[in-house]
Specification:
Elements: E1 15-16, H1 19-27, H2 30-34, E2 44-45, H3 52-63, H4 68-88, H5 103-109, H6 113-123, H7 133-143, H8 153-159, H9 163-170, H10 188-194, H11 198-207, H12 221-228, H13 231-240, H14 255-262, H15 265-274, H16 290-297, H17 300-309, H18 324-329, H19 335-342, H20 347-350, H21 368-375, H22 384-401, E3 405-406, E4 409-410, H23 421-453, H24 479-486
Parallel strand pairs: 1-2
Antiparallel strand pairs: 3-4
Helix pairs in contact: 1-3, 3-4, 4-6, 5-8, 6-9, 8-9, 8-10, 9-11, 10-11, 10-12, 11-13, 12-13, 12-14, 13-15, 14-15, 14-16, 15-17, 16-17
ANK repeats: 99-131, 149-171, 217-249, 251-283
Domain PGG: 430-476
Transmembrane segments: 438-459
């Protein structure tokens, strides 16, 4: 048996396809190739080093008709074309283009399950039922060929959720073979899970005993399933690999952290039913639990779901000392939820310990009530000390939100506080101006009133019998004043 190892290296001497041959390859017309005498299929390439099979498989997806009859006809034509081409030059199966992709990679990319089976049959010399060890090994070597990103055909099929291709690729594969990660540290199971392709996930878990669950950034296939938001995919992985619920990524985030941050409360419920202890795990940076992450995002339904399954976790605080209510307090829709926990309905009995959180101070002495007042109420900010406290709250919230992300999704933006530094300066200026205006108004009123009642010439001050009477009382100038006062 020929040892193929890696895909065949790019040949130096090639013949570029002309327009008629390229169109014939794309449309699966074998007649054009039959009419070319002395044509060397092995050296016939595009500038990207795609061979005839690459071109056919990549273009047939775009040119296939929307009508079912024509689609079936094209599939039949493609199968006949592939069979005849492989009959002429079976080595085309092992040729890679500039990206290291073999025809099998292209077939996997576009979900060509029938073509994949033809490739496997060709590599097995046409006898799938009675494979010898040499033929079986030849098939498996082809299946394990990698492109320049270290993707096998199985990686590609799993990424795009082509369940028929996944099934065909695993039919003759060794169930104990450990498929390695690609250059992005993704396994086939991880890729299928991240896409939410639960049927492909099921096949991988059922037929592949050595299923590696790892992914990039320390994630697992369960992290990926949660990121997809697909409940069925999450259930499938939990059933087989339930121990992944407490596995953390490189940031200390469990799958429950992901679900809480993304607000996928149906998945939150599945995870908690499997293992409620994950609700107490804090991440590496801020020691935030899944409950605190849900509150930070303002996901009220998720908050309630976590508390329903794990009410005691409400007492966990993060590295700054912030509790559940600190986070809910700066979300514009969460005030009603806070009140329901503290005051109204049955919530005060079900979540009785939450009532005490409103007065809990963080490491800086800030309570949830102060955060709530700053972002949702009428914050009292009448002094420089009040402003310093306000600035401290705003900075803390900024640290919590800005440049933070979980599961590749940023933290939701927060509303502006009700009182800012500029608002305070404006308020203090207006209050100072008001006080000044009051003083001026009082002085003007005093002077005006005094001038209005002053008697011309003044009064006599000596201690005589007419003390206190006007000097001009007996003069003619006094009479207008006397007459006016008598009216």
């Amino acid at each position: 048996m020929e040892d193929i190892g890696e895909p065949e290296k790019l040949v130096e001497s090639i013949t570029y396809m002309d327009v008629p041959l390229y169109k014939a390859a794309a449309e699966g017309k074998i007649e054009e190739f039959d009419n070319c005498q002395g044509l060397n299929l092995e050296s016939l390439k595009t500038p990207n080093y795609d061979n005839v099979l690459h071109v056919n498989l990549a273009n047939s997806e775009r040119t296939a008709s929307a009508w079912s009859f024509k689609s079936r006809s094209r599939r039949s034509n493609r199968s006949d074309f592939v069979k005849k081409i492989l009959g002429e030059c079976p080595l085309l199966l092992l040729q890679a283009n500039r990206k290291g992709q073999t025809p099998l990679h292209i077939a996997a990319r576009y979900g060509r399950s029938t073509t994949v089976k033809l490739f496997i049959e060709s590599r097995a010399n046409g006898d799938i039922e009675n494979l010898g060890m040499d033929e079986l090994e030849a098939v498996r070597e082809m299946l394990r060929l990698k492109d320049e990103e270290s993707n096998t055909a199985l990686h590609v099929a799993a990424r795009y959720g082509h369940v028929g291709v996944v099934q065909a690729l695993l039919e003759l594969e060794d169930p104990d073979f450990p498929y390695s990660v690609n250059k992005n540290h993704e396994t086939p199971l991880y890729l299928a899970a991240k896409g939410g392709y639960w049927r492909s996930v099921t096949i991988l878990l059922d037929k592949w005993k050595s299923t590696v669950h790892g992914g990039p950034y320390g994630r697992t296939a369960l992290h990926a399933a949660v990121m997809s938001g697909d409940v069925e995919t999450t259930k499938k992985i939990l059933k087989v690999k339930g121990d992944l619920t407490k596995e953390i990524d490189e940031n200390g985030h469990t799958p429950l952290h992901y679900a809480a941050h993304l607000g996928y409360y149906p998945i939150v419920e599945k995870l908690l039913k499997r293992d409620v202890s994950a609700a107490y795990i804090g991440d590496k940076k801020w020691e935030m639990t899944p409950l605190l992450m849900a509150a930070r995002q303002g996901h009220e339904g998720t908050v309630r779901k976590i508390l329903f399954h794990c009410p005691a976790c409400c007492e966990k605080v993060d590295k700054r000392g912030w509790n559940l209510l600190h986070f809910l307090a700066f979300r514009d829709r969460s005030l009603e939820l806070i009140l329901s926990f503290i005051i109204t309905g049955d919530a005060k009995y079900k979540y009785g310990s939450i009532k005490n959180l409103m007065d809990w101070k963080d490491a800086s002495g800030i309570t949830p009530q102060q955060v709530c007042d700053a972002y949702q109420g009428e914050a009292s900010c009448k002094s420089k000390n009040d402003q310093r406290k306000m600035d401290q709250i705003v900075k803390l919230v900024k640290d919590i939100v800005v440049n933070e992300e979980v599961a590749e999704e940023a933290v939701n933006p927060v509303p502006s506080p009700t009182v800012t530094g500029n608002d305070l300066e404006k308020r203090l200026y207006l209050e100072k101006a008001r006080d000044t205006q009051l003083v001026v108004a009082a002085l003007v009123a005093t002077v005006t009133f005094a001038a209005a009642i002053t008697v011309p010439g003044g009064f006599k001050g000596e201690k005589e019998i007419d003390q206190g009477t006007p000097f001009l009382i007996h003069k003619q100038q006094w009479w207008p004043c006397k007459t006016y006062g008598a009216k």
